[in-house]
Amino acid sequence: MDRFSEADVKESLQPYHAKIRAMVQRGLDEWLAVSKWRAEAGFAPILYPRTVTNYVFDAIARNARSAFALDATVRVLDEAQTVKFCFGSVVIGRFKKGDDDNLGQNIETQAVLQFIEAEQTLPGLPPEAAKVEFIWAANDIGTELKSVLVVARDGDEVLWSYEIDDEAGTSVVELPLSPASDDDAPLVRPKRIAPAKGSEGK
């Protein structure tokens, strides 16, 4: 059972609010750039809305993993179909697109039920920590980020929620750059061509 209240969670997450919102914005922006490119290239529109949701989630997860990877106060927990973030021993969070009730959209696997049911605990994680979803919603046409909420739930019931407002997302969040490796070096290097004889000084 989560032992931390909404006030505890909000206080604990306050230093991360800007980064959480920025990761959602970055993920949506990536999809919008891909969508624009597809349209300009003459590809047909995406047929299933879940494809867009999956793409945005993938982009958010990639960016959030990079953003929190070097933060000693956050544990990044990679799993087969998702990624979770543990903030100290107070909050365990994951990113989800919200439905009309501000609940994350889930296929109810055993792992999902462990997360969304308040009485359940997650193996290897603080049993007292609050489990929350970072719920995002776009506008009606999917072109702008409408809101990012922190939501605690028990099954299909919202226990409490609060919004990470726009001001939290105004900060510039720099993602760490991966160091270049030998594998990243270009396979073909440009060759310097000496000037032809007699062309010097022309």
What does the model show?
The chain is α+β, with helices and mostly antiparallel strands. The protein has 4 helices and 6 strands. The protein has helices spanning 6-13, 17-40, 49-68, 110-116; strands spanning 74-78, 83-87, 91-97, 130-138, 145-154, 157-163. It has a 6-stranded mixed beta sheet with strand order 1-2-3-4-5-6. A hairpin with a 3-residue loop joins strand 2 (83-87) and strand 3. Helix 2 (17-40) packs across helix 3. It is globular, with a radius of gyration of 22 Å. Mean pLDDT is 83; it is low at 177-193.
Question: Could you name the key traits of this structure?
Answer:
single chain; 202 residues; alpha+beta; six-stranded mixed β-sheet; 4 helices; 21% strand; globular
Query: Strand content of the residues, in percent?
Result: 15-25%
Total strand segments: 6
Rg result: 22 Å
Helix and strand run:
HHHEEEHEEE
Q: State the separation between the terminal residues, measured CA to CA.
A: 81 Å
Helix amount = 25-40%
Structural class: alpha+beta
Instruction: Tell me the quaternary state.
Output: single chain
Lateral arrangement of strands in the main beta sheet: 1-2-3-4-5-6
Mean pLDDT value: 83
- The number of helical runs is 4
Globular, elongated, flat, extended or rod-shaped: what is the shape? globular
